[in-house]
Design brief:
Structural class: alpha/beta
Distance between the termini: 27 Å
Shape: elongated
Number of domains: 3
CATH superfamily of the largest domain: P-loop containing nucleotide triphosphate hydrolases
Strand order of the largest sheet: 5-12-11-6-10-7-9-8
CATH architecture of the largest domain: 3-Layer(aba) Sandwich
Number of strands: 12
CATH topology of the largest domain: Rossmann fold
Oligomer: single chain
CATH class of the largest domain: Alpha Beta
Largest sheet: 8 strands, mixed
Helix content: 55-70%
Strand content: 5-15%
Length: 717
């Protein structure tokens, strides 16, 4: 159907409806067949009873103690993985084997015979029972909850309920067994590991003590147990203390040296001298004497005895002041020397302790390694011992996170087969199959059936369409009834031809088709009759010199015809015959020549067309088919236009494409196509064959649509 719709066209629902109507019997047959199959399957299917037990699965069980579970952490993790694991365990082979053992089904031949309809073989009975249990078990979790239904289906209602409950109980028991096994395994594993770690701890501590004693490594208390480097050794503590004392001695020496250097400078004042009480007293006495001397100097001369006594006392105070200052300076020097000696002594001791500490650190590398190993073993031993005690407390608690909400009960009615559901499913399958077959058949069908097929396949204007006649009705009889659908369709074709060229009706027209048959001669006759009724003089020439048929429609004489005119044996006036329709003349084929293509391609063909143009208003050539013959392109090249006849349901897309290509190679001007023998389909084509007025209107509408489409193409070009 994709060939029938050009790319980019909108979806036409009526095309789908037309396809379903055309293949309605195929679709109906598929529907009926599927319904029959559904009924047979429903009647032949034995009744099956389904019982369901509902469980609640929690991701964590109630904690009685704070000890963490020794089982894998999957059941504690949030997410879908935990529940999917539980569903997988419900469907596991081990659970089915546990149920079979608990109910004794492995020794019960009646169970296998009831489930399969035949007794089991002895060698494979156990495996068969387990496989049957797994095949008929269904696990259905309720969306958005922690509830899960375990259902079992069997031909016996009480058996279904009993097995469903056994699955639920066995699943809970299996979970508890796994917890107990996990706890027992964990206790045994921890006991073995505790013994190993305890032995390693003792060995590591013994080796640490022996190495410390051999290397004389003494660490002071107060360090961090997990950081051996943080425990100071005896030499390290001494070095730290002496290093602090050395820093203090160095500061004292620098201070004393600075005071002494300041005192040694000439004329420099000393803070120690200024702050000395004796110096202060002498300085005060000297100042008093100097003041008294200056006061008396205004009265007495320097040689006066009192003045001499004052001068002697001033000199004595100066001597005492110098003596005190010299003593203070000597004291500062002594303090400096003492501080320097102390600094040097401490420096020597620090250097000695540095050597000892560095040597101790070199020997302490092995000690640190041994101490870390001992601390690691001690921590591991404490952790394992704590875990062992926790498991010992929690191991006696049978915590369970799965519980039965509803136990299974024996169903009162079988769950399968469901006649309503089966028939509904069969009907749905039949509809889908029927529609699929209809569209598949339509897709494989390459025949032209509707005007849209021609337009989509070739882009060729459809000038009209003619319906197929009922059985027993001849085309000439249908054309005689002016209100018949066939006559109305050719009236529409005549109107379309009137607008097919800029000059109105084409003066010369070739009526041809892709394959033999299809109604070429009937169409040529109908066009001629329609023009004659309008008062135009029309001439119909039977140009099919291989299989002529126009004479049969009109009962005309074929002794003199087109072949005689083309060979020069007769003139056009001699070959033309009048018909019972006024203004309508025909030229039959005449005797069939051995070389039709050569006759039609000769110069006399152009002369015939020129002479006919002088005699009548329109010349219509009833031409041969296009495929396989060179006759139609030769005639088409000599006339004003060609009308391509397409027989609905018989002419394929490939044929019409090839025909149009051959006409294009011959430079034939194709006016459009005319679809003949259309199957009645009022919903699609818009006309009904029992209502002549509607048929006429719709056929005329087809021609009008064709003209509008042609005008649009001309504007687009």
């Amino acid at each position: 159907m994709d060939d029938r719709r050009a790319a980019g066209d909108h979806l036409d629902v009526f095309d789908y409806w037309r396809i379903l109507l055309e293949h309605r019997w195929l679709a109906a047959g598929s529907l009926i067949g599927c319904l029959v199959v559904g009924i047979v399957v429903t009647l032949l299917t034995p009744p099956t009873y389904v019982a369901a037990a509902t469980l609640q699965i929690d991701r964590e069980s109630a904690r009685v103690v704070s000890a963490e579970s020794q089982t894998p952490s999957d059941n504690l993790a949030g997410g879908e993985e935990f529940f999917q694991t539980q569903y997988g365990l419900m469907r596991s082979r081990s659970l089915a084997a546990r149920v079979a053992a608990s109910l004794g089904l492995a020794r019960d031949d009646a169970f296998v015979e009831a489930m399969t309809g035949r007794p089991p073989r002895r060698g494979t009975r156990d495996r068969k029972v387990i496989q049957l249990l797994r095949d008929h078990l269904d696990v259905a979790p309720a969306r958005g909850s922690r509830l899960v239904s375990m259902t079992f289906a069997s031909p016996d209602a009480p058996l279904s309920a009993r097995i469903a409950n056994a699955f639920a109980e066995s699943f809970i028991a299996a979970g508890l067994d796994r917890q107990v096994e996990s706890s027992s395994y964990a206790r045994g594993f921890l006991e073995r590991r505790l013994g190993q770690v305890k032995s390693k701890l003792e060995d590591s501590e013994r080796e640490l003590v022996a190495y410390a004693a051999g290397q004389q490594i003494i660490n002071l208390a107060g360090g961090q147990a997990n950081n051996p480097d943080a425990q100071p050794s005896l030499a390290g503590a001494s070095l730290e203390a002496l290093n602090g004392a050395l820093a203090a001695a160095t500061a004292d020496r620098i201070h004393a040296e600075e005071r002494w250097r300041q005192a040694e400078k000439p004329g420099a004042s000393m803070d120690e001298a200024l702050l000395n009480p004796t110096v202060q007293q002498i300085s005060q006495e000297r100042a008093r004497l100097m003041a008294e001397y200056q006061d008396k100097l205004e009265i007495y001369k320097p040689d006066y005895p009192d003045m001499r006594r004052l001068e002697a006392r001033i000199d004595e105070t100066n001597r005492q002041l110098r003596s005190q200052t010299a003593g203070i300076r000597a004291s500062l020097e002594t303090q400096y020397q003492v501080a320097l000696t102390s600094e040097r002594s401490l420096t020597a001791q620090v250097e000695t302790l540095k050597t000892k500490v560095l040597d101790l650190r070199g020997r302490g590398i092995r000690y640190a390694i041994l101490q870390r190993e001992a601390d690691t073993n001690r921590t591991l031993y404490a952790g394992l011992l704590q875990r062992y005690k926790e498991i010992g407390v929690a191991g006696g608690l049978a915590a369970n996170n799965i519980s039965i909400v509803d136990r299974a009960v024996a169903p009162a009615a079988p769950s399968r087969p469901d006649p309503v559901a089966n028939l509904a499913l069969a009907a749905l399958a039949g509809m889908v199959l029927g529609i699929g077959l209809a569209f598949a058949r339509e897709g494989l069908d390459q025949a032209i059936r509707a005007p849209a097929d021609i337009d989509d396949a070739l882009g060729l204007a459809v000038l009209g369409l003619a319906p197929s006649l009922r059985k027993g009705l001849a085309p000439r009889e249908a054309l005689a009834d002016m209100r018949s659908p066939l006559a109305e369709s050719y009236h529409s074709l005549r109107s379309a031809l009137q607008f097919s060229t800029t000059d109105g009706f084409p003066r010369t027209l070739l009526v041809t088709s892709a394959a033999p048959g299809g109604g070429k001669s009937t169409t040529a006759l109908a066009i001629g009759q329609s023009l004659a009724r309008l008062g135009f003089r029309a001439l119909i020439v039977d140009a099919d010199l291989r299989n002529p048929s126009l004479h049969a429609l009109l009962g005309a004489d074929t002794r003199v015809g087109l072949s005689n005119v083309l060979t020069g044996a007769a003139s056009l006036n001699e070959a033309a015959q009048a018909t019972d329709q006024p203004n309508l003349f025909i030229v039959t084929s005449g005797p069939l020549p051995p070389n039709p293509a050569e006759l039609l391609a000769g110069a006399r063909m152009k002369q015939l067309i020129a002479e006919a143009g002088l005699m009548v208003d329109m010349v219509i050539f009833d031409g041969p088919p296009i495929m396989g013959l060179a006759d139609a392109p030769v005639i088409g090249a000599a006339v004003a236009g060609a009308l391509l006849i397409v027989e609905a349901g018989r002419t394929t897309r490939a044929q019409i494409k090839a025909a149009v290509q051959r006409l294009a190679i011959g430079k034939v001007h194709v006016l459009g196509a005319f679809l003949t023998r259309c199957a009645p389909c009022p919903e699609t084509y818009g006309y009904g064959y029992g209502r002549d007025d509607e048929a006429s209107a719709e056929i005329g509408l087809v021609g009008l649509r064709a003209m509008v489409a042609r005008a649009r193409r001309a504007v687009a070009a």
